[in-house]
Amino acid sequence: MYILNMKNSKFIIDKFAKLIEQGLLTSKDLSAEILNIFKSKRDEFIFKMKLTSKDEFDVLSKRVENLEIKIKKLESKKKQKLNR
Length: 84
Fold this sequence. Notes:
The chain has helices at residues 2-22, 27-49, 54-83. By secondary structure, the chain is an all-alpha fold. The model has no long low-confidence stretch (mean pLDDT 77).
């Protein structure tokens, strides 16, 4: 288990180093990239668990992505209403 955690830590550190090399300057870009890294690791973990078939996983993943987009839109509308 420790070796697996070290491997994942190394993966994340390598990704951060690559981001710094590419010159991502804004915190928004950095946070978006970090979220992408975590999402890909989450998807990889779920797929390795073989809880669903690949096709089913793709459909569910797309549904989750659509729901995340809707949540962001609703949050922005809520903020706009609060700012009025």
